[in-house]
Request: fold
Amino acid sequence: MHRFVAALARAGLVVAALALGLGLAFGVHEFADDHSDAATPVVNLRGAVARALANDVTNDATSTHADAVPQATPSEPPDDAAPTPRDAVQRFLDAESAQQYGAAYGLLSAPDRAEHESRAGWTADHADLPAIAGFRLDGVQVHDDRADVAVALRLHPQLNPDDGLVPARARATYIAVAEDGGWRVAFGESSLAAEYPSTASAPGAVRSWVRARVRCAHAPEFVGGLLGAAARADELCGAHGAVHVGRAVRLPETDQDQPFLAAFGSDVHEWSRVVPVDAPVRLRVVVAPLGERWLVVGVLPAPSERS
Reply:
């Protein structure tokens, strides 16, 4: 997620491209260290989406939308404003999900249009954003000339060293502001929180991976190759005994996390989990939430051993 976080910081809530990859109805499971579901914090995702969805902007009641308008003037005129906050976000997300970025630009607020300068500029910023799969509008809360529109997003999940993790689901709050006699989307003031599969399903994924490895068969794992003590996984081939796995916990912040930090950035501690394997070989398996499943991305030695 490295370059996406940086792009986010400059682009703002380009969550549309990323977050908009969201589907309609889907079960929400966040992850926690126990087996209950708990809300995850708002996080940077990728590209301009990072800032847009990263809740970088504080919605301070003492500030106004006008205060945020930059001095620069948008280089291209907008389309007609939407009649309601809901319509503004609906039309914006429809355009984003259809990859009609020029139309989406026409629905942005003046500060956002000034920041991205033109329809071509807005379109170019989507190079660092994931494509949208779908969305569902939930509640709308209007506060004078500002409205919060809750949106459930389904994204196209990804996991790679360049972009880090893009979740399959997220919950976003798009901000709509009164402008030009109607309503527009204040993309840079919007926020998004990623959602992940339940941690309770991580041990089962690791158990299946270990069993495949014991058979010396191919097991689903990170396409970039296992990180950490990868050679330890080879010891499973042909090993005898029942497979025993423990409860998923967070990736420890020790020197053993360095390969994972280097590959995925500091956010890896938010979304990765570690599942101990006590037999037939002692090791710890690091997993990542790819879509609605947990994928093995690396191996750590047992706690009493060094890598």
About this structure: Residues 199-300 form one domain. The chain has twelve helices and 13 strands.
